[in-house]
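Note to self: keep these together.
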Amino acid sequence: MLEKKKIAVVGATGLVGRMMLKVLEERKFPILELLPVASEKSVGEEIIFNGVPLKIISLQEALTKKPEIVLFSAGRTVSLEWAPLFAQIGATVIDNSSAWRMDSLKKLIVPEINGNVLVKEDKIIANPNCSTIQMVMALYPLHKEFKIKRIVVSTYQSVTGTGKKAVDQLMNERKGIKGAMAYAYPIDLNLIPQIDVFLDNGYTKEEMKMVNETRKILGDESINITTTAVRIPVMGGHSESVNIEFEKDYDLKKVRFLLSKMPGVIVLDDIRNSQYPMPLYTDGKDEVFVGRIRRDESNKNSLNMWIVADNLRKGAATNAVQIAEYLCHSKII
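Structure:
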């Protein structure tokens, strides 16, 4: 039996923070004490965890209670300031923001792919971007077998990736209610080809995150990657159209076999019966679903896939909790 740990969840009142609490409950993580942490305006409010009411505390109070594992989902600025303070007292921080992902001294982890690189000295561990996680889960077994040369990906991302304000905007628009706007434009009956801010190269930060994080997780800077990220009026998950060019030729049966054997990946690809991944189907599930697997007939050694996953679960909360589980099972902490 695993030793119980004192756990803090920073950002416990946000969409991802609440999902972290739910996933910790569902997976029966061995918890000695849970510390729900949020901004000053939420301190003193109650949340329910495993049927028990718990008061939300401040970051400073959480620091004094010396948790062993801290799950952060409170944004880049908070992580940059507070994660090192928790690390200094010996806690292991698993951070869901972009703060540490591309830091050369910090590891960017999807446990099924590269959990084995973690060691006791890793006190701040980065959780990848949601869109990156689901894509690399499908790419990893294929990269090992056929060596990826180039990836072209277009994402179709749920409003839940922006947060509660975006969900409220979509729901208000559907009801004809005027309210706060998370986006510069209406999202209902629309899509917005911009996620995060634009950079000098014409790509958004979200698009470049996928480029840089994919290379880091797969450990291969030679992979050429180009991305277009789009926000759509959907709840329940992110979808991705992915075109992959390999160095070697491949057999479709082997591709499906490799994907079916990848932990955390489910092949849903029965076009005769119109079976393929959709956010409607993946909502609330931890697995990454892959379908529409077919040869790209326009380019040598190339493959098309459609990848869908619940962005709040495997794309954020579940991956973070799985990192914590890996650390405990491996006796790293």
